[in-house]
Amino acid sequence: MTLASANRAAKAKPQQKMNARPDAKHNIKGSRAAFYDKIEKYDLAPLWEVLKDIVGKEPKSRCVPAIWKYKDVRRLMLEAGDIITAEEAERRVLVLENPALHGESRITNSLFAGIQMILPGEVAQVHQHSASAIRFVLDGEGAYTAVEGEKALMSPGDFILTPNWAPHDHGNHSGKAMLWLDVLDVPTINHFETSFAKHFDETMQNTARGDGDSLARYGSGVLPDGAPIHLKRSPVINYTYARTRPILERLRKSGDVNRYHGARVRYANPINGSWALPTMGAHLALLPKGFKGEPYRSTDGSIFVCAEGGGVTKIEDRTIEWGPNDVFIVPSWKRYSHQAGKESVLFSISDRPMQEALGIWREDA
Ligand code: 1HN
Asked: Collapsing DSSP states into helix, strand and coil, what is residue 108?
């Protein structure tokens, strides 16, 4: 209940149950309503009318579970390609809007998600902003995203970082449409009212460092001498599927399969083991053929992408059936379990690092 609706409710039934003394002077509800009216003019409000609503006993997400089927998204994205160029759009992205939050450009309360497409020959010009972004590559081969001077070639399953304020542009010298999932912390940056953005005169940034440079430097068990250990973000730009997928296979073979999440790795900052970004945390999980996950919930609403295979996820009383490149979301604190009839790979991302930094993240396992 909002304060305005509490006020309305208090005013709507002034005399009920207060019949011991019908005199308006002693009508407590009536005098409360009058009091609320009076203090509103001083920008004051009674906490006691809303306390239980704003301090919930447990999380009540505004979001609902939802799935975006890739077959529909791809078809509509290609249609978008007919009506607007990447240059005109700046970023040709279809926003994945949580069905309960239409018009708010968000998939969960804290995160933005969208599907972006770059057609052969197109460029999405260089810019930078306070929001951090990740790309999870869905379809196509060999288009690039350039981040902080590194030109990263994209292949399906790659997890690519654009840390906050890193200049970035995208382009496609391949012969095919390239599609990927964008996830940004935009709603959180706007919650704090801290959004800055900048455009550059040139269309593309200079890329002194080639494909795979940061992964080779930082992701191989050694570190360049003097690498700063207190960076808030990973120095790796592209965590390639080619490097990460075989690790899942190793975990599966050795029986390191979590009963909720499957054989799962966390995308980490190789310098200090923390999350790859301070605001968003991601995992890649292999669900072995016949996997029946046990129910799990946590306070971070999560975005999932099926990278391989297919299965179902039960989210309380809803069952979502997913296949390759489908995107689905599980809201905060909703109990869910995954099942996979065939070997499957799920990418997931949430705002867990922010919740952990604030000491408010919880799980129920
Ligand atoms: C953005 O800069 C990109 O750089 C994608 O590719 C999606 C959504 C909201 C705000 C900025 C990109 C975005 C975005």
From this structure: coil
Range of the structural domain that residue 216 is part of: 66-364
Number of domains in the chain: 2
DSSP state of 26: G
What's the CA-to-centroid distance between 88 and ligand 1, angstroms? Answer: 14
Span from the CA of 199 to the centroid of ligand 1 (angstroms): 13
DSSP class of residue 47 equals: G
Instruction: Tell me the torsion sign for CA atoms 355, 357, 360, 365.
Output: positive
The tens digit of pLDDT for each residue in 303-327 reads 999 999 999 999 999 999 999 999 9
Query: What 8-state DSSP symbol labels residue 258?
Result: B
Distance 182 CA to ligand 1 centre (A): 7
Q: Which atom of ligand 1 is nearest to the CA of 95?
A: 8
CATH of the domain at 269: 2.60.120.10
Output the pTM of the full model.
Answer: 0.92
Q: Residues with beta carbon inside 6 Å of ligand 1?
A: 91, 93, 112, 114, 116, 124, 133, 168, 182, 184, 186
Let me know if residue 245 belongs to a domain: yes
